[in-house]
Specification:
single chain; 179 residues; Glutaredoxin
Length: 179
């Protein structure tokens, strides 16, 4: 009888040990990428402030990159806008360009800021700390396209360079699904 009781305690301890080990290892296996819209407070090149609260309740589309991918952002932003301008979902959309400037030295900020478009309708959020690139694992040298639903959940993420009609259709279908 004593041996059976000892075995039972040992089995219970083993189960507890496994759960404890799993609890400590779980963070290693979970994605470090955000699944929701991060809290942010960013300025555009005209010093207008935008926060995550400005985009809550909308379908929020982010097209962002570092300098290497910046040449692709206008292509993708324009393509997405043009495809959706006559769709009913258009009224629910908010689109923002984000410049990942996290690697720019502080003493070059003014110089870099002056390189952005001067037209007010071509505003870009200036991410000097690289919070979007870190949170959503932006790929360098590419447009990083993210779609957040009305509740701020990340529902789609992709990267792109040159125009790819198949990828554009995939993005548009994802957005239209919110009707």
């Amino acid at each position: 009888m004593y041996i059976t009781k000892l075995f039972y305690v040992s089995k219970t301890r083993m189960i507890i040990f496994r759960y404890v080990v799993l609890l400590f290892l779980m963070p290693l296996f979970t994605f470090s990428q955000e699944a929701e819209l991060i809290s942010f407070d960013l300025k555009d090149q005209f010093d207008r402030i935008y926060t995550d609260k400005d985009y809550k309740g909308s379908i929020f589309i982010v097209v962002g990159s570092d300098k290497g991918g910046s040449k692709y952002n206008p292509i993708w932003s324009a393509a997405i806008y043009n495809e959706l301008k006559n769709e009913s979902v258009n009224k629910q959309l908010k689109l923002a360009g984000i410049a990942d400037l996290g690697s720019v030295p502080f003493f070059l900020k003014g110089f870099i800021k002056n390189k952005f478009p001067k037209e007010r309708e071509k505003w870009v959020l200036m991410d000097w700390k690289g919070i979007f690139a870190k949170a959503y694992k932006f790929k360098s040298g590419m447009s990083n396209i993210l779609i957040f639903d009305h509740d701020g959940r990340l529902v789609y993420q992709t990267t792109a360079k040159e125009m790819d009609d198949k990828k554009l259709v995939e993005i548009i279908q994802k957005i239209i699904a919110f009707k």
